[in-house]
Amino acid sequence: MNNLVNTFEIPYYAVIFASERTEGDNGYNEMASKMVALANEQKGFLGLESSRDSNLGITISYWKTLEDITAWKNHTAHQVAQKLGKEEWYSQFSLRICKVERDYLFKSK
Amino acid sequence: MNNLVNTFEIPYYAVIFASERTEGDNGYNEMASKMVALANEQKGFLGLESSRDSNLGITISYWKTLEDITAWKNHTAHQVAQKLGKEEWYSQFSLRICKVERDYLFKSK
Fold it and tell me: Cβ contacts (< 8 Å) between B15 and chain A: which residues?
């Protein structure tokens, strides 16, 4: 799941989630895997890119419409994960909802 | 530079750059530092978040307007870096220009 995704039909939407973790795993990695699998099953889900180093994690999910993003935000299992995220896993995070207006993919020969 | 940036006045723009690297440094890290410093000096630059793990790197820069993004794309020193990126540093990358419509920042107590 942690590789580049393709481009999609314009316009579509990106949710940029950037986070700084607390110490320790505390069930984070198991839940993160579950949420990626569950997101893949949702209506309008296009793809997901994720990277984490010692300072910062960035996860971007791509969706067809804003309504799809709202439905995923309100999904019961995702709500549980969001609550634990605030209580346990993240010292801080930012969330941005964006409309993708242009995209470009480069592959070397 | 690799920590969370703040939220900004809506709307603003995000450039999502996701990349897979070639083997070796080949001058990449020195150039990356220079480009971050140079981006910071550009008109309309708001901030930058970056994370890289063994699979994928994601760098997001935030800008006031689309014109600011175009000016940065066309900056002479940045053009040199873009050319080297395609020739030397990246096996593939994607670039997405997005309008940020909503943002949210969480900090634990």
Answer: none
> Which candidate, A61, A82, A88, A86, places its Cα nearest to that of A2?
A61
List alpha helices for chain A, DSSP H.
Answer: 28-40, 66-73, 76-84
Asked if B86 and A94 come within 8 Å (Cβ–Cβ), the reply is no
CB–CB of A5 and B106 under 8 A?
Answer: no
> pTM of the prediction?
0.96
CATH number at residue A46: 3.30.70.100
What is the domain extent for residue A22? 12-100
State the ipTM, two decimals. Answer: 0.95
The per-residue pLDDT for range B33-74, each reduced to its tens digit, is: 999 999 999 999 999 999 999 999 999 999 999 999 999 999
Structural domain count, chain B: 1
